[in-house]
UniProtKB/TrEMBL annotation:
It comes from the Eukaryota. This is phosphoserine phosphatase. Its cofactor is Mg(2+). The keyword Phosphoprotein does not apply. It comes from Carpinus fangiana. GO terms for biological process: L-serine biosynthetic process. Pfam families: HAD.
Length: 340
């Protein structure tokens, strides 16, 4: 029995060839994954208007090899061994998704019912802890700890406490000073606007800090916001260098738990077999558990070790490119994203 798949292919800035076709991409995949006979597209289309196209959507089916059906995990689990070389050879970054059993007569749109985002280096371009560290004059110390934590070299909870301790004595007014400095990632506003219009609920789960998470959440009209709380000395109105006692700590496992809790609040039963319910997007090692708990988990511009472990990786110039994975064309994104 054949299984249907969809590839969203993003052309790299400096591809090996401007003449790569859907047929050639599938030929490279067939060779790399030892799939016989050679895969052929059941349908394909350009999702953008550039030439040559920057984004292709390719549908195909395969019965697998040696009597064993090919599964989505077969493409993902062999990323180190096969997918990197496939992408290098065809000049595209490839996102594999399972497609419906029968091909739709119209291009299928698959927006999530719930979309969950990390904040630092995902919805915004900076790491908030690094901005706070600059005020404390300990940037070099905090940046080193942050990088090791995001790469999975340090336990996130322990590294968070280490970094927070270095912030002792900073006036709490720093949060108001930092708000204008936060830069949204390219495409974030468009992505959130479109998700809202198609009825998706949204959540921000940040290992950063609540005052700035609420600020970004407000700018993007996000429904659920969770982040860490820093303790403040009421007498001096300065940070104590500790986390607020009794407040939740948004570490990797807590992000996964929150995804499940929010999904339940929104009436989504993730124990039932159904695609496209929850999207989870992040860039750090502490985002991996929620990515794997989601229907579709995407690492965007992630650290190398995270890209290798994530369900899906995306390294394009705009966060709005996530909408291509849901079947929206450039024209549809522009239309939905521009309407108030």
């Amino acid at each position: 029995m054949s299984t249907n798949f969809k590839i969203t292919a993003f052309r790299r800035p400096d591809p090996v060839s401007d003449k790569t076709t859907p047929e050639l991409i599938l030929e490279v995949i067939s060779t790399a994954y030892s799939i016989s006979p050679t895969l052929v597209p059941s349908s394909s289309r350009a999702l953008d208007t550039t030439f040559p196209s920057r984004v292709l959507e390719i549908h195909f089916s395969t019965a697998g090899t040696n009597g064993a059906p090919f599964k989505l995990a077969d493409f993902r689990d062999r990323a180190d061994e096969v997918l990197d070389s496939v992408e290098d050879n065809c000049g595209f970054d490839l996102v594999f998704q399972q497609a419906p059993d029968s091909a739709p007569t119209e291009p299928l749109k698959t927006p999530p019912k719930l979309a969950i985002f990390d904040m630092d280096s995902t919805l915004i371009q900076q790491e908030v802890i690094d901005l706070l560290a600059a005020h404390a004059g300990v940037s070099h110390l905090v940046s080193e700890i942050t990088a090791r934590a995001m790469n999975g070299e340090l336990d996130f909870y322990a590294s968070l406490r280490e970094r927070v301790a270095l912030l002792k004595g900073i006036p709490v007014s720093v949060f108001e000073e930092l708000k204008p400095q936060l830069l949204l990632t390219t495409g974030a506003e468009t992505l959130l606007r479109v998700l809202k219009k198609v009825g998706a609920k949204t959540a921000l789960l940040s290992g950063g800090f609540l005052p700035l998470a609420r600020h970004i959440g407000g700018r993007l009209s996000i429904d659920h916001i969770h982040a860490n709380s820093l303790a403040v000395d009421p007498a001096t109105q300065t940070l104590t260098g500790e986390l607020e006692e009794g407040a939740e700590i948004v570490h990797a496992e807590r992000k996964r738990e929150l995804l499940l809790e929010i999904a339940a609040q929104e009436g989504l039963d993730l124990t039932k077999e159904s695609d496209y319910k929850v999207l989870a997007v992040g860039d750090g090692a502490n985002d991996l558990p929620m990515m794997w708990a989601a229907s579709l988990g995407v690492a965007v511009h992630a650290k190398p070790v995270v890209q290798k472990k994530a369900p899906v990786r995306l390294n394009t110039g705009s966060l709005a490119d996530l909408l291509y994975l849901m079947g929206y064309s450039e024209a549809e994104i522009e239309q939905l994203g521009s309407q108030p």
